[in-house]
Design goal:
- With 403 residues, this protein is of the alpha/beta class.
Amino acid sequence: MPDILLSASRTSDASVDVIVLDALRAIREHLGMEVAFVSQFHDGRHYFRFVDSSSADPPIAAGDSDPLEESYCQRVVDGRLPELIRDASQLPAALELPATTALPVGAHLSTALRLSNGQIYGTICCFSSKPDPTLGERDLALLHLFASFVSQQIERRLEAEHARQAMVERVSSVLEAEAFSTVYQPIFHLAEGRILGFEALTRFSATPARSPDVWFNEAAEVGLGERLEMAVVTKALAGLEHLPPELFLSLNVSPAHLLSGAVARVLEGMPLGRIVLEVTEHVPIPDYSRFAAVLKPLRSQDLRLAVDDAGAGYASFSHILQLDPDLIKLDTTLTRNIDTDRTRRSLAAALIRFAQETGSRIVAEGVETVAERDTLHRLQVDMAQGYLLGHPLPIAEAVALLP
């Protein structure tokens, strides 16, 4: 079915559904009708998108459809039937429609739902099985008011659907074209000045040009997050065969994809003793016990776990306290100007002391100046990475850094 068609199960904006259903219930109860609904016209059919009824077993349900030409809605919109019908059995044009006797339809009010561009989306309707001679122009005016409000909500929902579909198409295009590459940033042993491993980072070549986190967030929003991340991890792992066996490769992964088993599947057959998985402090882990249980068979094969972004503005240190990481990565915001900022030095020193007590090792990220490097070395930081030490590079250039 075309993307313009709406269904509650497909939209991320569930609040719009609630608003529209509440509006339908309000107008139905005010008019004393049995059924109220919002319909959509498309390709010669009449789709019931939202339905509210006083009955536990209503004659129509959301998702139903019928030929548009056989509907009251179409004939009201094109003027063959009036918007206000007090008794359908007294109207020859209404008796031509099978629904009049099949449902049956007694009283009926209906008006078009128009979008801001003038397009008719469908209708908002109320009907009862019995006639209602008390209905009047004030009731119809109220329905018009509700129609204007509901049209705004429908348009909001359509815009959200189209935006979501655009995201799906962008991310799918990236996946199909593999419009991303891996670069490798060296991680140095500070005391010895030698490379211990590389962190794999992703760069996207697709348009629009955006940072990797935007691509990953968008993929997650439309249900393609796992597929994109596993494609990226798979490509990054290909670089491992070009590195000497004593070097490790560090990969950024989502806790959700670890919990789903997707990461373990991608790592099958890989030398886990050479792999570090990084999880960020910014992404919550709802069940640490389950997370640890999923990681246990991997860590038993010497895979290492790193907690990334330690000391960043919103980091809570929960992962560090709960996961017993092998590596703790000091965030760039903590290492930046650490040589001149006493507060940063104090927090870094506390984390370094914690790591020494728990058997973890510290990796300082974002080292850009000699003064920062030297200060971290004096604080007994084991490892570091950053532009001062080495930029992220394609695998061939990264390997060229090795002695």
